[in-house]
Design a protein that fits this description.
The protein is mostly beta strands. About 0% of the residues lie in helices and about 50% in strands. It has no helices and eleven strands. Strands 2, 4, 5, 6, 9, 10 and 11 form a seven-stranded mixed sheet that branches. It is globular, with a radius of gyration of 13 Å.
Length: about 120
């Protein structure tokens, strides 16, 4: 079955960096747009970034643009999210997702369980 497993979350001070990874299995990884979403305490799940199947196109939420970078390695069936200049408002559970793409969760068919990112101020 399809599995998306995130890793790399943790506790970091404001201004610091983290790199999230999402390893996929059970699907033809290179056929899917991959996305990152996050859900903070008491908030709805929100779009963070997405990358096309080839890696040629990337998309970012305004709140993370120029701070976060999404990338993928189709040979390793893995998508990454490099997060720099972290802020307290970035604190959330981060989920990776595979699907047809877009800015809304409905555009993604498969989801990981998530990894917690906590930014202390």
């Amino acid at each position: 079955q399809v599995q998306l497993v995130e890793s790399g979350g943790g506790l970091v001070q404001a201004g610091g960096s983290l790199r999230l990874s999402c390893a996929a299995s059970g699907l033809t990884f290179s056929s899917y747009t991959m996305g990152w979403f996050r859900q903070g305490p008491g908030k709805e799940r929100e779009f963070v970034a997405a990358i096309s199947w080839s890696g040629g196109s990337t998309y970012y939420a305004d709140s993370v643009k120029f701070r976060f970078t999404i990338s993928r390695d189709n040979a390793k069936n893995t998508v990454y999210l490099q997060m720099n200049s972290l802020k307290s408002e970035d604190t959330a559970v981060y989920h990776c997702a595979a699907g047809s793409g877009g800015y809304r969760p409905v555009g993604y068919k498969y989801w990981g369980q998530g990894t917690q990112v906590t930014v202390s101020s």
